[in-house]
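Quick illustration, no need to memorize.
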Amino acid sequence: MAIGHATGTMTELYKQAQSRIPATISLPSHWLKSYEDFVTRNASSVTQIESALRSLTYIVPGRFRESELASETLHTSTLLISLYHTSLLRRHFPSPSPPPPQTRYTAFYTARSRLYSNSAILLQTIQYTELLCEMFFKRRGGDKARWRLVVVLEIIKAICRTIMFWVTGRRMVTEGAGAIRPNIPEPSPTSAEDELGKDEEGALADGNEETDQVQEERSIEWPMPRTKMTLPVLPSTTSESITEYLSSRVVSADDIKAAHQLVRKIGSFQGQVAEMMWIFRPVAYALAMQRLQGKNRRDWRPWLLGLGMEVAARELGKKEVRERTVGGWRGMTGVEKEELKRRGWGLAWWGMRGAFYENITK
């Protein structure tokens, strides 16, 4: 009898636990949904909090023990959270109107190819976290573990860039548009009286004020004699404001091009070799540095290898543009020019790497 009673009790407990499992599993998704709703409702406040957290990275170093690792952890966490918030806000708010060409190009292939989207997200995530991981591995395993990690990360980044290169139809790999946030409407100021309702005198005063404002705007507008249509109000008569006003209404060639035409296809074998050389140059440099393993930091061979590959890729790319693009440099789109300019500025970082830093800069 006691055994039967115990068996019934165990069965009842099992049924209760089984009925609670789906509710327990659904809790994380429910919390995530609540957090997404909070971010979308308080987008401006969330952006200000992110800016405040970024400013803390300038205050933390030197305050306590191991502050460099703590500061980099805070900075990396803020970047990852900001990346998630940006992807969340872009689903709920419209893009800037008109969106920049780089944003249009990236959004086109992100929506078209899931492989491109995942590769771009993985590439950006590695770029945000690689310095923190490098600091952690160096502290735990020394230069040997550090360069082993760097080689692995650079190979993954090169694979992501190669996938993006082939998915887009052998177009130049562009970076830097994944974190552009949409226009976030500013919350309208409301007071307690607005929530409870205004009295009749306040409503009349507001009505008279709005009427005076409308009449003032209409008095500035100029009605055309034949069509009776009114021209819009121009800005102040300063030369800078008029120039900005007219420039904002000018349609450039990039604005009317299709998104996939903002970056041209690299048709020649020479151009494709140049792009692949640019993609895999960090891998070659990391492998050369791993071979040294910190034995001789003043050795010029890895530095010359990495810089030589980047300069060769740049020169081959320039030659391909001169031979294949109508008009040469002038015939390139704004997205291509900005990417080449970014790569050109990237050459300056070689002054802070390897043997050049150890022998000259330092």
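Confidence is low (pLDDT under 50) at residues 23-27, 189-210.
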